[in-house]
Write a structure and sequence with these properties.
The complex is a heterodimer of chains A (about 350) and B (about 325). Chain A has 17 helices and four strands. Chain A has helices at about 10-30, 35-60, 70-85, 90-115, 125-140, 140-145, 170, 175-200, 205-215, 215-220, 225-250, 255-260, 260-275, 280-310, 315-320, 325-340, 345-350, and strands at about 150, 165, 175, 255. In chain A, helix 9 (about 205-215) crosses helix 11 and helix 13 (about 260-275) packs parallel to helix 17 (about 345-350). Chain A starts with 11 loop residues before the first helix and ends in a 12-residue tail after the last helix. Chain B is mainly alpha-helical and about 325 residues long. Chain B is about 70% helix and about 5% strand. The chains are: A mainly alpha (about 350), B mainly alpha (about 325). The interface between A and B is large, with 43 and 44 residues.
């Protein structure tokens, strides 16, 4: 229990599901051959960490930030620009990390301090405005960021797919640089989620929950809510930037569509809400469900759309088109905020559907 | 504080003029920077026209918040829906749009705008009943629900009209400019300015001179008290919400004509812009929203002329500057 910071899943089904997900992710390179399965698994790892860090803000402090993809993008771009500019060596990786993480933390500090000065209700709007300005900035500064095309780069020798670490005839499968990169992503993501679990179960995390429930009362009890909220913001930004670094390392690319776009922000929101706000475990569940659906259900939608158009039904082919995938997610999102505000984890922990677990402010 | 004698008139609330002077000062300051008077006049007219359009879109959002403490992240959807609905009328009557008579043009434009307002308003009714009613008083859920609503509305637009950009040409009589000496002012901008000003005056008259407006202003200041006096503030709010949605739809039509194109992504882009405007103006304040819209448009136009590179972040800088000066926006109406 030490490793879970004394906050176990508290539900037999949930434990089982989590164990299955984590084992499947850990064994993906050997269980599911093929590039697609590995890509999906890596994306689940990265997003589980990213969503968990967003949960720290949304679920534990109750503040809605629309700037989370900005920090994710800062991490991605930092590593991409460093590797692109300095060549594919470990010094470039270190530079990317050394520039990206402090930059994200500083920006989070600036936004935090600024939005303290103004009414709390402005926070969501200000983060949305800042994030959209940052997105425009990233696509305009094309000498640095590569504009809409983004930056592709080479990884250091050790992490390249061509590097064979353990040859095939030893165990029956090849362990190459790609698989090593996958385990890097997996391990760092897992460590970050465990660290977040530690944070939310610390006295600091309890204060965050107190602020979520009643900011004035928390302040009256003598907690410096300003300090706590800003600190939580910076922590979340650091984890998000790290997730961005992992994502860029995995994709060997950073561009506006993969790391900055507003639709990623929506994806994160959906994953948190579906998984369950304020649970951290919800991030793993939400990310797994969402990304599996995104990668495998979309083709089903395509098939359904074709079938509907062959049957001559009006409107349905358009609605079922794979590009309209967000439409159904949006409906699912509204339905889950409305009917299951505690998400999958909340439901599994409390099947009676007691609503006391949901946060309202 | 001075003592009041029994029959002295009650002290009037102090008029806060500093925010009103701000856009005027900004415009005057720009004269030497821009250099030529004619380009300054053109830019100022462009800013006023753009500001009026933004004001029309943002006015509903600020009132909805002020009155009912509802943060509507889906407000941009009404804008896009309005613009798309207008194409339903404008596309079949393309010939009348290209006719060379102002009256023929307006005979098509006016029904298109009215239909847009009706559809946006009806959508507002739906959104209020389905998305907002269940989560009154819960900001977090309001933000989530209305964000979900924005996604669904935008995707429905894509599903119904397809993902391509739809051209929306200006009527021929509204093309071109009025030339006064060496100053050129686009005709459509004059129209936009007139409509915006008319709507601003209408809103101000309703708010300040009618019983309805009295109730709305009272509700913004203290909702419980209005309820305690026996008024059904929920119904009042629904009316304000629908009016705000309809105005957003009208703003969408005007914006689409201004850009001469319609695309579903306009809802997201404009959401950011109108958020900045209502934050600058102070949530709940119509006057603040009006000044905020003009300021944002001025910064966009002057900034785009003087420092095109800076134009990307100029809105954010403006917002930061205003909030540093007045942390609750230009006019802080609500006590929240």
């Amino acid at each position: 229990m030490m490793i879970l910071s004394g906050d176990p899943p508290r539900s037999r089904v949930l434990t089982l599901v989590l164990v299955v997900i984590i084992l499947a992710l850990a064994a993906t390179p050997f269980l599911f051959p093929g590039a697609k399965a590995l890509n999906v698994a890596a994306k689940i790892c990265v997003f589980a960490a990213l969503v968990a860090s967003y949960d720290l803000l949304l679920g534990y402090t109750g503040s809605v930030s629309f700037a989370h993809t900005m920090f994710y993008g800062i991490g991605s771009y930092a590593i991409a620009i460093a590797l692109y500019g300095m060549g594919s060596n470990w010094a470039a990786v270190a530079t990317g990390i050394a520039v990206g993480l402090p930059l994200a933390a500083l920006l989070a500090l600036a936004i935090g301090l600024f939005s303290l000065r103004v009414a709390a209700i402005f926070f969501a709007m200000i983060t949305l405005a800042v994030a959209s300005a940052f997105q425009v900035l990233a696509s305009q500064l094309s000498w640095l960021t590569g504009g809409e095309d983004g930056r592709s780069f080479q990884l250091p020798e050790l992490l390249r797919p061509g590097t064979v670490l353990i040859s095939k005839n030893l165990f029956g499968f090849e362990v190459n640089g790609r698989i090593l990169t996958y385990y890097l992503v997996f391990t760092v993501s897992a460590l970050m989620i465990l660290a977040l679990l530690r944070v939310v179960n610390s006295p600091f995390g309890r204060v965050l929950q107190a602020i979520r429930e009643n900011r004035f009362r928390a302040e009256a009890l003598g907690f410096r809510t300003v300090f706590h909220l800003t600190y939580a913001n910076c922590l979340a930004a650091l984890v998000a930037a790290s997730a961005g670094i992992l994502n860029a390392l995995w994709l060997r690319y950073a561009g506006p569509d993969t790391s900055l776009s507003f639709s990623i922000m929506l994806d994160i929101l959906l994953m948190v809400v579906i998984g369950g706000m304020g649970t951290i475990y919800g991030a793993i569940i939400g990310a797994s469900i969402f990304i599996l659906a995104q990668n495998y259900l979309q083709s089903l939608m395509g098939a359904a759309s074709t079938a509907a158009s062959e049957a001559g039904l009006p409107l349905l082919p358009g609605l079922l088109h794979p590009d309209r995938w967000l439409l159904w997610l949006g409906l699912l999102f509204i339905a889950s905020v409305y009917f299951f505000p505690t998400g999958v984890v909340g439901r599994l922990r409390n099947p009676a559907g007691d609503k006391s677990g949901g946060s309202s402010h | 504080m001075t003592e009041l004698a029994a029959n002295d008139p009650l002290p009037k609330p102090k008029r806060d003029v500093a925010p009103i002077l701000l856009p005027i000062a900004l415009a005057l300051l720009m004269i030497p920077l821009i250099g030529s008077t004619s380009s300054w006049l053109t830019l100022t007219a462009a800013s006023l026209a753009m500001g009026m359009m933004i004001f029309i879109m943002a006015s509903g959002l600020t009132l909805v918040f002020g009155l009912m403490d509802v943060l509507n992240f889906g407000h941009g959807a009404f804008i896009a829906v309005g613009a798309y609905v207008a194409t339903l009328v404008l596309a079949p009557f393309a010939a009348s749009i290209q006719a060379d008579s102002l009256w023929v043009n307006l005979a098509v434009l006016a029904p298109a705008a009215l239909l847009s307002m009706a559809v946006s308003g009806a959508l507002g009714l739906l959104v209020e009943r389905v998305l907002i009613l269940p989560v009154y008083g819960q900001h977090l859920k309001q933000i989530l629900m209305t964000t979900g609503g924005l996604i669904v509305a935008e995707q429905m637009l894509y599903a119904l009209w397809g993902p391509q950009i739809i051209p929306m040409p200006l009527p021929s009589s509204l093309r071109g400019s009025f030339i006064l000496g060496d100053v050129a002012i686009a005709k459509y901008r004059v129209l936009a300015m007139l409509i915006g000003l008319a709507i601003f005056i209408a809103i101000q008259l309703v708010l300040n001179r009618s019983k309805l407006g009295l109730l709305i202003r009272a509700g913004v200041e203290n909702r419980e008290m209005v309820e305690a006096l026996g008024y059904r503030i929920r119904r009042l709010f629904l009316g304000v919400f629908m009016t705000g949605s309809a105005l957003a739809g009208l703003g969408g039509v005007m914006w689409a004509l201004y850009r001469e194109q319609v695309h579903a992504s306009m809802s997201e882009d404009l959401t950011v812009l109108i958020f900045i405007v209502v934050i600058i103006g102070g949530l709940g304040s119509i006057g603040g929203c009006f000044i905020g819209a003009i300021l944002v448009a001025m910064v966009a136009n002057y900034g785009g002329f003087l420092l095109p590179k800076l134009a990307l972040v100029s809105n954010i800088l403006l917002m930061v500057a205003i909030l540093m000066w007045r942390p609750r926006g230009l006019y802080a109406v609500t006590s929240r």
